[in-house]
Amino acid sequence: MLFTGLSGAGKSTIARAVAARLLEQGDLVSVLDGDEVRQVLSAGLGFDAEDRARNVARIAWVAAEIARVGGTAIAAPIAPFAAGRAQARRRAEAAGARFLLVHVATPLAVCEARDRKGLYAAAREGRLPDFTGVSSPYEAPLDADVTVDAAVAAVDEAADAVVAALAAVRR
Ligand SMILES: Nc1ncnc2c1ncn2[C@@H]1O[C@H](COP(=O)(O)OS(=O)(=O)O)[C@@H](OP(=O)(O)O)[C@H]1O
Ligand SMILES: Nc1ncnc2c1ncn2[C@@H]1O[C@H](COP(=O)(O)OP(=O)(O)O)[C@@H](O)[C@H]1O
């Protein structure tokens, strides 16, 4: 399961809620959170297009390995580029897994108004280069399996929609 969306969109929060539901169902769940991946698996990578592609490719590889042995991998990077997301889908399917692309489509204005980490302000002031939605592109997916907007849906509602979409692809 690949979550994609802007910084602050709600990817981690909704991914964790989905993971909790799947654990209750007895799934073997591994959450590959964007921030945590950056500290370990992708330590040293930056935010230009090439490093973002490397980051998403690494996540996709680990997720496909988890799926190959029967686990459910939930990854929540920004994953701003369609090509990287498509590669993740191909890798998962090549591993014999089902793939779900979850677009957390919270509008930029809402993410920026929340600005929990002050990153949008820093990006607007030119102190943080290549910031998604400000000075680096976000290619909104045209192939999302489920779309949730955290400006409209509460965390529980968004998680319900994702779990329902997963159940549909598992049928
Ligand atoms: N320049 C720039 N652009 C976007 N994000 C930045 C940047 N610099 C640091 N951060 C912080 O890194 C988190 C995004 O990392 P990801 O690995 O998810 O990004 S990507 O998928 O490789 O594009 C992202 O975390 P989230 O806010 O949880 O999305 C940011 O906190
Ligand atoms: N409906 C919602 N869904 C998800 N997050 C929400 C929602 N409403 C408010 N939030 C808050 O928005 C923030 C989203 O942060 P986070 O999940 O880390 O986003 P991301 O991983 O996309 O950067 C959190 O502080 C969360 O509590």
UniProtKB/TrEMBL annotation:
Protein name, UniProt field: Adenylyl-sulfate kinase
InterPro entries: APS, APS_kinase_dom, P-loop_NTPase, Sulf_AdTrans/APS_kinase
Keyword list, A-Z: ATP-binding, Kinase, Nucleotide-binding, Transferase
Gene: cysC
Organism encoding this protein: Amnibacterium setariae
Record field: catalytic activity: adenosine 5'-phosphosulfate + ATP = 3'-phosphoadenylyl sulfate + ADP + H(+)
Principal EC category: transferase
APS kinase domain mapped to chain residues: 2-149
This protein's pathway: Sulfur metabolism; hydrogen sulfide biosynthesis; sulfite from sulfate: step 2/3
